[in-house]
Design a protein that fits this description.
The complex is a heterodimer.
Chain A: H1 12-22, H2 45-62, H3 96-105, H4 177-200, H5 213-217
Chain B: H1 26-50, H2 62-72, H3 82-116
The chains are: A mainly alpha, B mainly alpha.
Membrane topology (chain B): Single-pass membrane protein
Subunit structure (chain B): Complex I is composed of 45 different subunits.
Organism (chain B): Oncorhynchus mykiss
Chain lengths: 237, 127
């Protein structure tokens, strides 16, 4: 279980690529023609890769081999300050040996290591870990990183940033999830339905014009006290 | 500990799970021991680095590096399958056309109403 730090000798793939530089099969690029940027998709992926290699080399040659700046984007030489290619995630493992190597790389048992199924979505050989959030981990164990409830070197779930203790919690709920959903959406749906029906079919208290006593407030309205007030009939029986 | 009942929102820790204690096959035990061995080695490495008095730099976690690398470079292993093409089209191409169509028709309708003088300006500030 020795992890490598520091400079590493060129890996096999880097040596292969530097050989390709000298004995590669490239497409003929006319100098500075706009057609050079057009690739026909009828080529096989292998040829396309080679063509990409040729394109990159052409671009580098064009900029007179100066490494820093724009041409560094096309360079195939990686800095040796990071982890070696063998320590980084790679493509989906096809053979049992690749599986064992990937399990060792991720610090897992070969039997435990199960890569995410290869459906073209770009997971590579990353392991499929159980979808349990960090809330479910033992709060009393002495983790190396107590806030994340994780030990150093432990394989990280693909959605780890979702499962931290501030975010998604997969702990068991007091009531079953489907019951909670039914209760909540049932109640909200019922209230929405009732309010909608209330808008559609309004029902008010019966309203009538205001009725005043004392012969329609005859004296208070300043009318002649001697004069007989007019009869106002408010109802029909 | 036989009558331990976990809190309503917590899962039972692995060490208190009765399935971990009773009727364990030898293979299960061996597996647990191997896992414990891996864990112990990683702990040891971390502690050696943590308590090294001559250490001046941050302790780098290769698992974290791998995770970051895997999350930021999915296109190295991307393949155009039916599902990925469908998702790409659905999230990247269709919204462009749908949004253009919706906005254009809505604004054209509004323009026509304004030209005909029938547009009802809600919340207008000037009379």
């Amino acid at each position: 279980m020795h992890l490598q730090f520091g400079c590493n000798p060129p890996t096999k793939s880097q040596r292969r690529r530097s050989e390709e530089k000298n004995t590669k099969k490239t497409l003929d690029f006319p100098k500075l023609s706009p057609d050079a940027c057009v690739f026909h998709c009828s080529m096989s992926p292998q040829q396309l890769n080679m063509a990409a290699v040729g394109f990159r080399n052409w671009a580098r040659a064009l900029s007179k081999g100066k490494q820093p700046g724009f041409s560094a984007l096309f360079s195939q030489v990686r800095a040796a300050s990071g982890p070696s290619k063998g320590m980084l995630p790679g493509p989906y493992p096809q053979t049992p040996e690749e599986r064992a190597a990937a399990a060792k790389k991720y610090n897992m048992r070969v039997e435990d290591y199960e890569p995410i199924p290869d459906n073209g979505e770009g997971y590579g050989d990353y392991p499929q870990l159980p979808d349990r959030s960090q809330h479910e981990r033992d709060p009393w164990y002495s983790w190396d990183h107590p806030d994340l409830r994780r030990n150093w070197g432990e394989p990280i779930h693909w959605d780890f940033d979702m499962f931290i203790r501030n975010r998604v919690d997969t702990s068991p709920s007091p009531v079953a999830w489907h019951t909670m959903c039914k209760h909540l959406f049932g109640f909200v749906g019922f209230m929405l339905l009732m309010f909608y029906l209330g808008e559609k079919f309004p029902s008010y208290q019966p309203v009538a014009p205001k009725q005043y006593p004392y012969s329609n407030l005859h004296l208070e309205r300043g009318e002649d006290p001697e004069k007989q007030p007019e009869e106002v009939k408010h109802f029909n029986i | 500990m036989a009558d331990y009942r976990e809190a309503p929102l917590a899962t039972r820790p692995k060490t208190l799970d009765p399935a971990e204690y009773f009727n364990l096959s030898l293979n299960q035990r061996r597996a647990e021991e191997e896992r414990a061995g891996l864990r112990a080695q990683l702990k040891r490495q971390y502690q050696m680095q943590l308590n090294n008095p001559h250490r001046k730099e941050l302790i780098e976690d290769p698992a974290l590096t791998r995770w970051v690398y895997a999350r930021t470079n999915p296109y190295n292993h991307f393949r155009a399958t039916k599902k990925t093409s469908l998702l790409g089209g659905l999230f990247g191409v269709v919204p462009l056309f749908v949004l253009y169509y919706v906005l254009k028709t809505d604004r054209d309708k509004k323009e026509e109403q304004i030209k005909a003088g029938t547009y009802d300006r809600k919340f207008k500030l000037a009379y």
